[in-house]
Structure formats: structure tokens, C-alpha cells
Amino acid sequence: MAGTARRRRGKRMPSLARFFTKQLLLFTALAFLIVVVDFFLYTVIAFHESNENFDDGTPALVIRAVDGALALGEEGWTLGEAGAAELDAHRPLAVLVDGEGAVAWSHGAPDDVPASFTPNELAMAAHYANIADYPAFFWNRDDGLLAVGFPKGTYWHMGLTFPASTVRMVPFYLLLVFAVDLGILFTVYAVSRRRTQRAVGPIADALDALSEGRAAELRLKGDLREIGDQITEASGIIEQKDAARANWIRGVSHDIRTPLSMILGYADALAADGRVPEDARAQAALIRAQGLKIKDLVTDLNTASQLDYDMQPLKLERIGLPRLLRTVVAGHMNAGLDELHPIGLDVDEDAAEAVVLGDERLITRAVENAIANARLHNESGCNVAVRLAVREGAQAPEAGRGATGGFAAIRVADDGAGASPEELAALEARLARARTSRSAAGSYGEEHGLGLVLVDRIARAHGGSLVLKGEPGRGFAVEVLLPLA
User: Fold this and answer.
1) Could you tell me if 199 and 23 are in contact, meaning their C-beta atoms sit under 8 angstroms apart?
2) Cβ contact 380:340 at 8 Å
3) In CA terms, which of 81, 125, 225, 395 is 20 to 30 Å from 117?
4) 3-state secondary structure 236-247
5) Sequential pLDDT tens for the chain (485 residues)
6) What is the number of domains present in the chain?
7) Residue 472 in domain
8) Are 93 and 17 in the same domain?
9) Is the C-alpha dihedral spanning 123, 129, 135, 138 positive or negative?
10) Same structural domain for residues 428 and 319?
11) Domain presence at residue 124
12) 140 with 168, same domain?
């Protein structure tokens, strides 16, 4: 049982780790998706702004159009239609400053624009792209300097100067930032995963304890404190219910045992009394047979109660299986039930010294239940054969020991009605449900009582397993595999 619990906990912890790993990977993927979406939005916004502000009507296009349309003729400066159209469309001011610094031509220039500029003023205006607080753009001509100024607040000019060595290092800096970001993300992931495993570990242990019927008490801190309190409360409720159920089973078993013994005694006496009429003796024998079934059921309930609720450790000792089987078979023969169900025992030569480490009372109960199962499902009669063999290197599905020691195979077979593939599959399914259920006693409501369910649970409690075989009309076999000591 402890080995099974460790394997189950070992499976649960990686499962929890995988769950939280997936959550962290999902967070990483989400962060990457945000970066991709941001880049896409940047591209869309850049394309939109390019269409709106950097195709038609940009300062470069306007000033080029004005430059191409502005000419000096006999009647003075004239502006062609293309240049005039651009100025009218965007309403900028335009001035042409000659080599002496005087404004030789202007268009739409407000009063706060100077009529002349000193070399220093022109240099400052060109450097800051500003004429009287109007964003200005300049174009050098053979006959002077053309400046086009746009309304205040329409453009923002920023002049940046970087060393060439800094520009060359930009790719390296970008890679460095990317590597640092990855390092931070991995560190956060590793720390979060470790903290999560530490936080979930006690919860997994508590769940294992609950699944094994043991009390679980959690005293967690932080965000998981409420979950720990709920598990502790649930453990207390389950423990109370289990104690009440176990006490009820013990009480009922105790109350039934005394009157049942009296019934069996009187029925046995009547069945054996030659002075009693034949039909009355037959009825007494029937009463005795049914009373023995009730006695077996009471024994099964007590055994299930020990395995499920009391969780008492197995009373392990070295058991010689040939001796145990001879005792069980002799007990059935002496019980007088062999007229319709003759029973025999066969011990293989290599199994004559077979010894297992187990609880003798429980293993005896498992063998008796297997024999009782043959009688129960063959009321018209059948031969029952009990055989003990050794399986070298056999491996039980839930065995907690290696295969090198081998297994003792206790086989109880009959030549009765057998079982169809559908019936065998249904029985296997029921055993599978009982294995996942915490309580074997809780399986009693299903067909066939507790018999084979209890055999299966006893075998697994000893690190062994149960194998069922049967064919319609060709009998049914129950084989219990137990690790050799």
C-alpha cells in the first residue's frame, strides 16, 4: 500500500508540475503574442500616418513644389500654379531670402516674420527649423534661401546627434536587452515553478492521506491557506463518517453472531437427527446452508472494515502456503458441504515449500471466498480444485516487489457453468471500480456481494494481484498471485 501511495504521489507531482509549467508557458506565449500584436499595430499606425502626413502635403513636397514654381521675371517674382496650389492647400507662409539677408519674395507671411535676416539669425532659424515660432523648412536656391513655414503647432522638430561608435553598437545593445529579458523571464519561471511545487507538495500529501483513509491536517499560509483549511475540514468529516460506519458494522456483526450461532447449531442438530422427518431435516439443512452464507457475509464485512476504515497494519508473518491450503480445504470437507461440491487440493512439487510474508487470517479469507464463489455460482454442483504453484519471474500489476523472487499462484477452479466473455468483462469492470474506490465495503450493493472484491483487495494489500478466467460451460478459475518471501 505504501509503495502504491508513493507511486501515485510520484505521478501526481509531475502532473501538477506540468500543469503549472503549462500556465507559465502560456504566460510566455501571451507575452510574445503581445509583442507581435504591438509590432503589427505599430506597422498599421505607421502606414496610416504615412498616408495621412508623409505622402501628399509633406513639407518636402510643398517646398519642392514652391521652388519649382517660383521664378524671377521682368515683372519680378512670380509663382506658378502648382506652387500656388500647394500654398493654398496647406496655408503655409513662404519667404525667399536673398544673399544680403533681405526678404526678396514672400507669400502669406504674417507681420511677426522679419523683413530681413542677419547671417546669425538665418543660421539659428535653419538649426532650430523655426521662423518666428513657425515650424520652417529650408531649400537652398542659386538666388537665395527659400523657407516655408507651417502654422504653429503643426510640426515638432527634434535634432539628435549620436557618436558613430554608438550607432554601430545599437545591434549589440538590442541583443543584450533581448538576452536580459529572456534571463528575467526564465528566472521568474524557475522561481515560480519551485514555489508552486513547494506549495502544492503538502496538498498532494494530504490528498494521498485522504485516499488511503488517513487523517489529513494542513496548516498552509498565504493564498493557499483557505484550501488547506477546507482539506482539513473535509478530512475531519470523512474520518467521522468512516468511524461511524466502522462502528456500525462492528455492532451489527456482533449482534448477529450470537443468534446466528444458535440458529446454525439447532439447524445442524435437526439435520443430523434421524428421529426428525426427512423433509424437516432437508429444511434444517437449507437453513444451515443459508446461515453459513450469512456468516460468510458477516466475516467479509468485518474484514472489509479492517482494510478500509481501521487501516490497521497487516500482521505480517512467514506463512507456509501448503499448510494453510490444507487447513482451508479440510475445513470445507469437514463442514459437510461436499456432496454437490467435492473439493481437492494439488500442490506442485516446486511449491511444496512455498512461503509468503503476509497476514494469515486475510489470506485464509481470500482462499475461502474463492472456494465459496465456486459453490455460490454452481448450486447444481461442480468439482472444485485448489492448486498451488510457483511462477518464477511473474509480475503482478500492482506488486511492490521485483519479479526476481517469483510469485506463489493459488488457483481455485471449478468445472461448472463458467462465465461468458460479457460476464467476465463486467466482473473485471466491477473489480476495477472497486480498486479506485476507497471502500471495499461500499461495493456490497453490487451483484455477487463482497467475495471476489475482497479477494482482490487482500491480494493487492500483499503486493499481489487477482486473475480471473472462465468460459461458458467450461468452468471458472480464480488465481491469486502473492510474492514469495
Assistant:
1) no
2) yes
3) 81
4) HHHHHHHHHHHH
5) 444 444 444 444 555 556 666 777 787 788 778 878 888 898 888 887 777 665 566 788 889 999 999 998 888 899 998 888 888 887 789 999 998 999 999 998 998 999 999 999 999 998 889 998 899 999 999 999 999 999 888 888 777 777 888 889 989 998 998 889 888 878 877 887 787 777 777 887 887 777 766 778 887 776 677 877 888 888 888 777 777 766 666 666 667 777 878 888 888 888 888 888 888 888 888 887 788 778 777 776 667 666 665 445 578 899 999 999 999 998 877 765 557 889 999 999 999 999 999 989 889 989 988 998 898 888 888 999 999 999 876 555 444 444 446 899 999 999 999 999 999 999 888 888 877 665 554 444 444 456 888 899 889 889 999 999 999 989 999 999 999 98
6) 4
7) yes
8) no
9) positive
10) yes
11) yes
12) no
Q: Is there a single domain that holds both residue 89 and residue 32?
A: no
Distance CA 375, CA 343 (A): 10
CA angle 335, 341, 366 (to 5 degrees): 70
**Count of other CB atoms within 10 angstroms of residue 156:** 7
Cell 500543469, residue located: 19
In this structure, the answer to whether residues 347 and 464 fall within a common structural domain is yes
Q: Look up the domain containing 464 and give its range.
A: 314-483
Strands ordered across the beta sheet of 476-483: 343-347, 384-391, 407-414, 476-483, 465-470
Rounded-to-integer distance, Cα 421 and Cα 476, Å:
12
| Residue 71 and residue 144 in one domain | yes
Domain assignment present for 156: no
Residue 154 in domain: no
Cα-only R_g, the chain: 48
Q: Which three cell numbers stand for residue 353?
A: 515449500
Cell of 390: 510457483
The Cβ of residue 183 has, within 10 Å, a number of other Cβ atoms equal to 10
Residue 105, beta-bridge partner list: 96
The domain that holds 324 is classified in CATH as 3.30.565.10
What is the spatial distance between Cα 18 and Cα 45, in angstroms, rounded to a whole number?
Answer: 40
Do 45 and 115 belong to one domain? no
Query: What residues have CB less than 8 Å from 379, skipping those under 6 apart?
Result: 340
Question: Which of 263, 289, 312 is the C-terminal boundary of a domain?
Answer: 312
